[in-house]
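Subject: design request, 304 residues
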């Protein structure tokens, strides 16, 4: 999709959005430690005031980590909001800062795993769970190669334009979730790594497989994508370093013996890999999402 000129967004209904974007643009000029502290302060405010969403996150954390005592579960929840606040401000910085400045914040581990797969001519799917800094992983990869990722169209067309420009600033392709699947498959087969985020509630279109200790409605597409594109699946985890010190992007060895051809078994395996990544820095996983909203037939409602 071609860029739309900003002159299309001068109508009064866009003025509040322009004001918000102007604030974010100013924040983007700040040193990252300063914007991080401001963002974490806002995140803590949301934690204190947002009782309903805070309880959703805590319910998810308690379900996934029942072995932890309640104080530790609460700490993970609080820190989750602090890091979410950081990304609220830092996302705009990532969209608009210079490439040189962005690269100074990055610590990349095991990129040779991706480079070896590329050298062998393999198609690549990056399994990228919903960590708060997941956008950074996409930017990191696209610095040296065009990548493909999916996104969901925003009803605010100005926000949609800004987000698309920001995410495509280093090149690559965005595929809207409702676009024909053949477009995505063609891009993967062409050699563009696909940055795939599969771990949100899939509704009744998903299959119920374990995620930690609960059954979660999960999109059963990863194994099918691999079968249709002959790709390897490389897990990718992103981490926000404390106090605006930057970001860590970690790649792991490709998932072995995948897929098996059974969508339940393959989706279960995918969730197991995601669980392993979440355990590395649980406070930065996207807990505020109602991951267990869709329930198996006859199961009790998960959220109060």
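Subject: RE: design request

Done. Sequence follows.
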């Amino acid at each position: 999709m071609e860029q739309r000129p900003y002159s299309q967004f001068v109508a009064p209904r866009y003025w509040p959005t322009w004001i918000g974007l102007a604030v974010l643009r100013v924040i983007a000029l700040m040193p990252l430690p300063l914007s991080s502290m401001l963002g974490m302060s806002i995140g803590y405010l949301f934690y204190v005031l947002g009782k309903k969403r805070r309880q959703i996150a805590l319910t998810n954390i308690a379900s996934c980590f029942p072995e932890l005592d309640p104080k530790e579960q609460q700490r993970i929840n609080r820190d989750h909001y602090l890091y979410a606040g950081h990304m609220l401000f830092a996302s705009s910085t990532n969209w608009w800062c210079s490439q040189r400045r962005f690269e100074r914040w990055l610590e990349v581990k095991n990129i040779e795993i991706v480079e070896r797969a590329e050298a062998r001519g393999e198609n690549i799917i990056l399994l990228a769970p919903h960590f708060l800094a997941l956008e950074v992983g996409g930017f990191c990869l696209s610095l040296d190669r065009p990548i493909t990722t999916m996104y969901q169209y925003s009803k605010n067309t100005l926000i949609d334009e800004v987000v698309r420009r920001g995410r495509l600033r280093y090149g690559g392709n965005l595929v809207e979730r409702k676009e024909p699947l053949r477009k995505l498959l063609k891009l993967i087969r062409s050699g563009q790594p696909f940055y795939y985020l599969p771990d949100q509630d899939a509704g009744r279109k998903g299959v119920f497989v374990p995620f930690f200790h609960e059954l979660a409605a999960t999109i059963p597409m990863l194994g099918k994508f691999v079968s249709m594109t002959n790709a390897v699946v490389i897990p990718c985890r992103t981490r926000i370093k404390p106090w605006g010190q930057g970001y860590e992007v970690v790649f792991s060895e490709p998932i072995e013996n995948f897929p098996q051809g059974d969508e339940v078994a393959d989706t279960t395996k995918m969730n197991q890999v995601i669980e392993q990544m979440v355990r590395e820095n649980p406070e930065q996983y996207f807990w505020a999402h109602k991951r267990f909203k869709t329930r198996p037939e006859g199961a009790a409602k998960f959220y109060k």
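Residues 6-284 form a domain with the Glycerol-3-phosphate (1)-acyltransferase fold (CATH 3.40.1130).
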